[in-house]
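Write out the bound-state structure for BES.
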Amino acid sequence: MSKVTKDIEAPLAKVFRYIEQEKNNFVENLKNAVSIKSVSADPNLRFEVLKMMNWANNKLKILGAEVELCETGIQVMNNEKIELPPVLMGKLGNNTSKKTICLYGHLDVQPADISDGWSSEPFILTKRDDKLYGRGSSDDKGPVLGWMHAIEAYQQTGTELPVNLKFIFEGMEESGSIGLSELLSKRKDTFFSDVDYVCVSDSYWLGTEKPCLTYGLRGMCSFGVEIKGSSKDLHSGMYGGIVFEAMSDLIHILDKLVDHKGKILIPGIYNDVEPLSEKEKELFMKLDFNVDNHLTDIGVSKPLKETKEDLLINNWRKPSLSIHGIEGAFSGSGFKTVIPRKVIGKFSIRLVPNQDPKKVSDQVKSYINSIWNSRKSPNKLKIIQSNDGEIPWITDPFNSHFMAAHRATEIVYNSEPDYTICGGSIPITLTLEKITGKSVLLLPMGAGDDGAHSQDEKINLLNYIEGTKLMAAYLYEVSKI
Ligand code: BES
Ligand code: ZN
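---
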C-alpha cells in the first residue's frame, strides 16, 4: 500500500485527540443504538423504528441542531395500512461564509435473529477481538453516530465547526426509502437551496485494509411471482396426483431466470448495459482486493469468475439476479407433507448504467408471462412489484469534493484511498444529486468483511474510531474548497 504522511493541522489534531479519548463513550452510544430493533421490513417492529428516530432526534438536539421529524404518510403492506416512520431532517449552523454540507444516513436495519446463526445476540453490541458485533453496527448506525461524534468532538474541544450542516436521517432505507423522494423534492427550494455538497456514509471498503471513496452504486428492481393453486394447504398424500401444484409451477419459473454461471436468461436484459472501457478495466486491476481472503471470509470455495477484475466487473458493471426466498413455502425443520396453497417467489435484479428499471420490469414481466403460457397450468399467476425500482448511480470522482475526501483519508489513514463502485444500492443517492445539482460523495466507514445484512455483522473498533476522525477531517478539508 502506498504510504502518505500528512501533517495534521492543530485544530484537527485536537479534535482527533478528543475522539481517541471518548472511544468508550462512542462504543456505549453504538450499543444503545443497536439495542433498538429498528427493522423497517417488519410491521410489528415499526414502533422500534419510531423509537430509533426519536433517539437520533434527541441526540441532534443535544448537539444544538434545529431538528424536525417529518411525516411521510402511510405504507400499504399485506393489504394493511401502516404509518411510515418520520424522516429526521435538521440543520446546524447558518454562517453564510461557510460551505453547507448535507449528510445522509439511515437508522433502520435488516432483520436479525440469533437463530439465523449469530454467535451472539444481534441486538446486543458485543465486543470480540476489537470488533463490535451487532445488527446495524456497520449498516448504518455506526456511520450515523460517527457524524454525531465528529460534531461533538469539534464542539467539546472549542474548535469552530468549519461548515454548516444539514441532516437527513431516515428509517426506511432497507425497505426502499418509501416516501423519502417525495418529501425531499418538496424541499428543493428551501432545505436544499444552500447545500454545496452531499455526503453519504453507507458503503464499505472493498477489502479490509485499504480505505476507499465510492463513486457508483447499482440500481435495483424487485419482484414477487405469486402462484395460487388452491384455497387452502393440502395433504400431499390425499391430493398429490390430483392437483397442479403451485410450488412446482413457481420452481419452474424461478429456474428459468438465471443459469448456474450467473447469466440472466431474460431476453434483452443486457442490451442497454454500458460497455466497459479498457481504461476502467485497468483501474479495476489496480485495486486492493484479495479474492481468496474475500471468499474464505464467507466460506465460498469457487467464484463465478477467475480473475479479480472479472469479478469486479460482474459485481459493479453488470446486472445480477438473485433469488431471495419463497413466501408460503414450508421452511421449518422436519417434514410437513403439505402442498402449499399459495407461494410467492421473491427475486431482484441489480442494475447498472444505462439500464432503466421500467424497461427491465417490462422485460421481466413479458418473459415470465411467456414461460407461463407454455406451462399451461390452471393455477393463477400474479407478478408483484413493490415499487418502480432504483436507477443506478455513478459519478465522476475527479472533482474538488472527492479531492477533499481524498486528503482527509490520507490524513487519517496515511494512505491514498481506492476509488470503488459498490454492488449494492442506496435508493436516495440519485435523488439527492438531482435535487441539489451538487456533487454527491460516498464516504465509507466500515470494512469489506463487515457482513452487512448477514449473520455476525460487525464494525471494527478501528474503523469506527478512525472513521469518526475521517468524518471530522472531511468536514475540515471540504471547508477549504
Ligand atoms: N449500505 C447498503 C448499500 C450498500 C450495499 C452499499 C453494499 C455498498 C455495498 C444499504 O443499506 C442497503 O443495503 N441498501 C439496500 C437497498 C434496497 C433495499 C433498495 C440494498 O442494497 O439491498
Ligand atoms: Zn443495508
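---
The CA atoms of residues 114 and 120 lie 7 Å apart.
The chain has two domains: 10-217+392-478, 219-274+317-385.
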